[in-house]
């Protein structure tokens, strides 16, 4: 299977999970997937395979400068592993936010943008959630 196909499959794999988390976060199948971290575990396995391929082919990776990190993203297996890393960790953050919201109890109208922005822009959605969490926990 080519890296291009794996890239597409990984994107397809996370999309339904994000839709479920945004629109049906309390639905039993959604909760099962969140509680057992099924999709992040699958992505982690794929990540390990491609990061090992990159290491075997190109040796140890240098994260010591922006230039060296940019060079890593010119290596197909390393770029794919990096993308899968983003997908897995953004998804884990989204799952964490939903778990946090069990106690926080933000309305889904507020959670949906946090989750969508986490899906699209990672830290932006996380930051919005944390701001809402502080505001809800410490009312003025």
Automatic annotation (TrEMBL):
Pfam families, per the entry: ABA4-like
Bilayer-spanning residue ranges: 6-26, 38-60, 80-98, 110-132
Entry keyword annotation includes Membrane: yes
Keyword Transmembrane: yes
Keywords of this entry: Membrane, Transmembrane, Transmembrane helix
UniProt signal peptide: none
Name the UniProt record assigns to this protein: DUF4281 domain-containing protein
Organism: Maribacter flavus
């Amino acid at each position: 299977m080519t890296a291009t196909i794996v890239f597409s499959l990984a994107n397809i794999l996370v999309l339904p999970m994000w839709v479920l988390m945004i629109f049906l976060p309390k639905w039993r199948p959604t909760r099962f997937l969140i509680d057992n971290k099924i999709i992040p575990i699958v992505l982690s396995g794929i990540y390990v395979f491609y990061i090992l391929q990159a290491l075997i082919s190109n040796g140890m990776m240098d994260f010591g400068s922006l230039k060296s990190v940019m060079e890593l993203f010119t290596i197909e297996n390393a770029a794919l592993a990096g993308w899968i890393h983003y997908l897995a960790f953004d998804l884990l953050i989204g799952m964490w936010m939903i778990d946090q919201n069990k106690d926080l109890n933000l309305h889904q109208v507020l959670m949906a943008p946090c989750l969508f922005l986490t899906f699209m822009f990672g830290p932006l959605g996380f930051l919005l959630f944390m701001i809402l969490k502080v505001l809800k926990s410490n009312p003025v």
